[in-house]
Known about the structure:
The complex is a heterodimer of chains A (320) and B (254).
Chain A: H1 2-21, H2 37-70, H3 82-95, H4 104-124, H5 130-153, H6 158-168, H7 177-196, H8 198-204, H9 208-213, H10 218-240, H11 246-254, H12 266-286, H13 296-319
Helix pairs in contact in A: 1-2, 1-12, 2-7, 2-10, 2-11, 2-12, 3-4, 3-5, 3-6, 3-10, 4-5, 4-10, 7-10, 11-12
Chain B: E1 3-10, E2 14-21, E3 26-30, H1 37-44, E4 52-57, E5 60-61, H2 67-73, E6 74-77, H3 89-95, H4 104-117, H5 133-146, E7 151-155, H6 163-180, E8 183-187, H7 191-197, E9 200-205, E10 208-213, H8 215-218, H9 221-228, E11 232-237, E12 240-245
Parallel strand pairs in B: 3-8, 3-9, 6-7, 7-8
Antiparallel strand pairs in B: 1-2, 1-4, 4-5, 9-10, 11-12
Amino acid sequence: MTRLNAWLLLALAIAVPLSLLAGRVWIDPFDPQLPNAAVIFAELRLPRAVLALVLGAGLGAAGAAMQGYLRNPLADPGLFGIAPGAALGAVLSFWTGWAASGWALPLFALAGAGGAMALLGAIAGRSGGVLLFTLAGMMIASLAGALMSLAISLSPTPFAMSEIVTWLMGALVDRGWADVWIAAPLTLAGIAVLLRAGRSLDALTLGEVAARSLGIDPQRLQRLMIAGIGLTVGAGVAVAGIIGFVGLMVPHFVRPLTDRRPSSLIVPSALAGALLLLVADCLCRIVPLAGGELRLGIALSLLGAPFFLHLLLRLRRELA
Amino acid sequence: MMLGGANLTLAGRLADVSVTLNPCEMTVICGPNGAGKSSLLGALAGLVMPDRGSVSLQDAPLRRMAATARAQAIGYLPQSAEVAWDVTVETLAALGRLPWRSGAAADAAAVQAALTALQLEPLRSRPLSQLSGGERARALLARVLAGEPRWLLADEPLANLDLAHQLALLGQLRALARDRGLGVVLVLHDLAQAMNFADRVLVLDRGALVADGSPEAVLTEQLIGAVWGVPARWLGEPGARALLPGCVTSGRGP
């Protein structure tokens, strides 16, 4: 397990410097002729790389915890309605025009994520049961989705509508240090909360009743999950829009390399998520596309959907 | 350390059940479907809160105990043998250490002892998906034993096991009670197994405790006829009994 973490850290140590060189403008480290190379490094590439690492780590850890909580390898942190809640908040900031002033968009998104978390806690909080929790999350997700579509359809100007739609696709283009300062503390706090849930998630491997017989408090676990998923996913959506499938795919790649306990999956999934998002974002920058960059959210969904189908087919074979 | 329930009442499940269980004994809870067997076991494990009445462990009420202290004392094996992830036997057994924060050395020793006691040593690094049903049942029991509980409560542990593995598991459970002083409480459907292995039998019918005592005294043909509605006859000797159901011996129908 710790060896796996060491390998992932090594891979990150190689990938991060390379990612700083790659992009629309390639930088040759041995021949820095480019006049504004320092500015590109410090103000464009470095914050973007840090953001990819932070968001990827958050999504990976959230996915690992989520699959452990639902005892289901097909679970994704987006299921609980926190990501759609955050997206709804962001859409409202465009809709009202507040988005123009830098800080409003992430604040609205975080408020949306917080609202979804509060609703989730209020509906499912009493029983601590996983089934009710999941159903409540899916209900919140579809409600937020409907309200989002309503906001888009009623958007005041076509310009606002196109802005909203583009933003929803998820990307790290033109993100700066301000976004890092919003996302990094919240995401790291979220990962810390999820790590605290590790023991309880391990117990849940044996089912809810056995977990309670091992002294696990299901309500405490549920609070930790809401807070941890809310912080990681909410912060991610607030600065980068919706980026799907990382939380689904990463724990899958990592699980066979661990002892398969949910608690030993969280840290390697965070590292692998950081690596995946960093590499995917670099590819988005490199791929030549007429209308600008390939959007990160689209790229990952293009990768992720076939992967999900492959998983389903494999599961079907195992069940047959 | 005694485990006792007083006036346990749960709407539609249990009706004023009072019972005191002794360690070093294997107690079997019997009864028809829906008689409240699992509810009684769950209440004794502190997992089902009764509407009225209370469960106490050595005079301390269970509901006042910290969840971890309760989990250290009472090991519970649920009926569903689900394990969500394909962990190895050793990792599964180590999950039983979750109520303890006793350090890696003590944890490893307890896991080792549990694996040895159930002859799982050769399978310790085998993933669960590669085990047979009997091996899997033993691995799940090892998880409970690794927690070093004073009480072992198991809900239908024989489900999905063939006859040889049923007998082996019952023998192991009885040995745990007799040799190690564990209190063992099982819910069983098979009355012959209860007759041959139990030290004490509790019979539930529609939520009420209708009989309590040694198996020979409790599981009479009359009681089986009255509670299960099945005329039946015992064959064989004490300790090696077989139940022949459906043969009317005294002219009573179901």
